[in-house]
Amino acid sequence: MRDKKPLGLQLFECVRGSPISFRSCQALVLVLTFLSYASYHATRKTTSIVKSVLDPKTNLGLLHWPSHLYLQNLKGTENNMTLSSGWAPFNAKDGTALLGEIDLAFLGVYAIGMFFAGHLGDRVDLRILLTIGMIGTGLFTAAFGAGYWFDIHNFYYFLGMQMMAGLFQSSGWPSVVAVVGNWFGKSKRGLIMGIWNAHTSVGNISGSLIAAAMLKYGWCWSFAVPGIMIALVGLTVFLLLPVGPDVIGIQEDLHLKDSEKADMDTPLLERRSEGKDKAVGFIEAWRIPGVAPFALCLFFCKLVAYTFLYWLPFYISHTAIGGQYLSDSSAGVLSTLFDVGGVVGGILAGHISDHLDARALTAASFTFCTIPALFFYRIYGSISLAWNIALMFVTGMLVNGPYALITTAVSADLGTHSSLNGNSRALATVTAIIDGTGSIGAAVGPLLTGYISSRSWSAVFTMLMASALVAGLLLTRLVVAEVAAKMEARRTPDHAHAAASDLPVSSMGEP
């Protein structure tokens, strides 16, 4: 494996004159994977910021709920909004629907590619796979913006660029989760991965701020700058990222206590001699108890989360807040508060699930609480800027909490299921199945929003609330099993830890 050691680390060790330590490698892995996926999300966020520039005159339509509760009179709208001529073909009557189809193209290819990327990730060098994905993403993200420079108005050009960007992006999540899984053990998994998963929100925030700042120079730069950034991070990954301790030649850190080594050196998928080098098949991974319900739950969780990711800045710029309409760039900056709430929600969900030792109960509780949060944000979010900020933060916290928990700690739990027989090459496949299924929902939500929002934003929020309800209901059986196990554990204290720790996965194997 020495020949796979990153060139940058070889140079660093040569200059330093000694090998890099185990803890230094762990820190390096956390930083690089964090930056990698943050840069992926920064490139995804640009489309939502530019939407209202490409299609500035979208008809909001009539609303189903009493308009005096949340929207001022639409008279004088054009006096309050800074409108431009837009960009053909998105400034036509069906511009909103076309933007929804662009989102579908990206997320549809992303979802399909995720299944193949996870299968591939367990069989090839993850560093190379991640590097190719990041550079390809940067290239086609910038190519979308190049349509401005070359005065391109063909819808299929933009559609093709988004599809290619989605294909390259699909390699990101299975790769970073598998790499982190190779370096970190099980201790406080929910909290650690909840903090690490903040890269999603950090990427959304930075992407929003960069794209909004670049709008004054032309919407092309909102795509070009994030595209260049992710390509540069990709080159850094190629030079520095160690995909596992064996690649570096590190077996253990002699300075760690024995108890720490036993946990930290155990990857998210426990390694055993049997079946160690055989990668888990796609169908076999689907059959792991618990994968299907959590994957379907994530379908609806990501439907809600990605609708906000792609449409929240557009919604804000087209909704009167305190009687005034915000500019496109201001709406983009304001929308970052949703992601700030998402950071808090991911960490909170991870910590609570660790404390309760109940992943399904935590995820279901967050999704059910999302329903009233969405309702109140729709009705009262336009009263004033302060109300909008507060309700947006709470909504982001509740929406992203279960999303972050399922894609990280839950995926890792499922990857360690006893049916794998200690197989060490399944984490990327299991992660890809769960997140790939969720990404199909991420494609459906923005697409439906593109059509529904032209008639009624209230109908969009109704769709989101129904999705949150279904997501929670899908975990009902797991929640019941977790609660029953907790009650049983109180009656038999000696088996408390064993019963709880098996839960959200093993309970689905019951007839």
Automatic annotation (TrEMBL):
UniProt topology in membrane: Multi-pass membrane protein
Domain spans labelled Major facilitator superfamily (MFS) profile: 31-484
Keywords, in A-Z order: Membrane, Sugar transport, Transmembrane, Transmembrane helix, Transport
Primary site of residence: membrane
Entry's transmembrane regions: 20-40, 97-116, 128-150, 156-184, 196-215, 221-241, 291-311, 331-349, 361-380, 386-406, 427-452, 458-480
Native species: Urochloa decumbens
UniProt record, GO biological process: phosphate ion homeostasis
Location within or outside the cell: Membrane
InterPro entries registered for this protein in UniProt: MFS, MFS_dom, MFS_trans_sf, Sugar_P_transporter
GO CC terms in record: membrane
Gene3D superfamilies per record: MFS general substrate transporter like domains
The protein, known as: Major facilitator superfamily (MFS) profile domain-containing protein
One Pfam family per UniProt: MFS_1
Family to which this protein belongs: Belongs to the major facilitator superfamily. Organophosphate:Pi antiporter (OPA) (TC 2.A.1.4) family.
